[in-house]
Amino acid sequence: MSDPLEILLTNDDGIDSTGIRALYDALSELGNVTVVAPATDQSACGRSMSHEVDVDDRELGYAVHGTPSDCVVAGLAELGPFPDIVVAGCNEGANLGEYVLGRSGTISAAVEAAFFDVPAIATSMYVPPERGPLSEIDLHPEDFAEATRVTSYLVENALEAGVFDHAAYLNVNVPLADGDPAPLEVTRPSKRYEMDAERDGGRVHLKDRVWERMDPETLPDPDGTDRRAVVEGRISVSPLTAPHSTNRHEGLSALADAYSETVGPTER
């Protein structure tokens, strides 16, 4: 009989969020779940890292007074058994598009795990803008049924299927649960970017206008992208790599070769 899966669970909404409790309950049926999550909401903190953090014992697990990246490092290196997989989520709100990948604390937790060579899944739930601001929506455990179902499926099957031989982590975005299970689509992150800023006296308001055009009939994102899949009611799974890669660049190589001639001789 094989050993049970060891799962490290974290998020960026905080250890008291409904989404992490929903995933904890679901994943506990698959293996041993160690929760190491921020003590407070750390949304959109990216891969911010602290030098030292306080840790509290909570009913669900460890509450770290720091960022999701802090949680992953602390969990992998000190607080828990070394896991087979790291799961981040479920985030209340989608993490869609290339420009979000470096901003999201949920995604950043998965990226941090990837640098430890631990497979990771980041799961987020899309809430349609017409439901109102996320801060004003009261989400219940049953709203996360789609998220818990597909995350459990991937945790249980992706390792053996060799998914992580070619991907460092999976960025999973799911629709709000609504009746029958949604189909799953392998996607790529949308390249669409619509950040804007408006000045009002001594303040500048930063606006993410991408959320203003989420009507399936007018959505500009092409087929195969994460945004189109989720807006049209499908689960989006984007297999992604974390370590920064480089490509051979002839133009840059030529500049490097010419550099010494440009700046002249140097004294040593």
Could you characterize the architecture of this molecule?
The longest helix has 14 residues, at 250-263. This protein has a single domain (5-263), classed as Stationary-phase Survival Protein Sure Homolog, Chain: A (3-Layer(aba) Sandwich). 26% of the residues lie in helices and 24% in strands. With 268 residues, the chain is α/β, with parallel strands linked by helices. The protein has helices at residues 18-27, 68-79, 98-101, 105-115, 145-157, 226-231, 250-263; strands at residues 5-10, 31-38, 55-57, 62-64, 85-92, 120-126, 169-175, 184-186, 195-200, 203-208, 235-240. The strands form two sheets. Strands 3-4-2-1-5-6-7-11-8 form a nine-stranded mixed sheet, sandwiched between helices. The chain is built from seven helices and eleven strands. Strand 6 (120-126), helix 5 and strand 7 form a beta-alpha-beta unit.
Tell me the helix content: 25-40%
CATH class: Alpha Beta
Instruction: Give the total of domains.
Output: 1
Mean pLDDT: 91
GO molecular function: 5'-nucleotidase activity; metal ion binding; nucleotide binding
EC number: 3.1.3.5
Subcellular location: Cytoplasm
Catalytic activity: a ribonucleoside 5'-phosphate + H2O = a ribonucleoside + phosphate
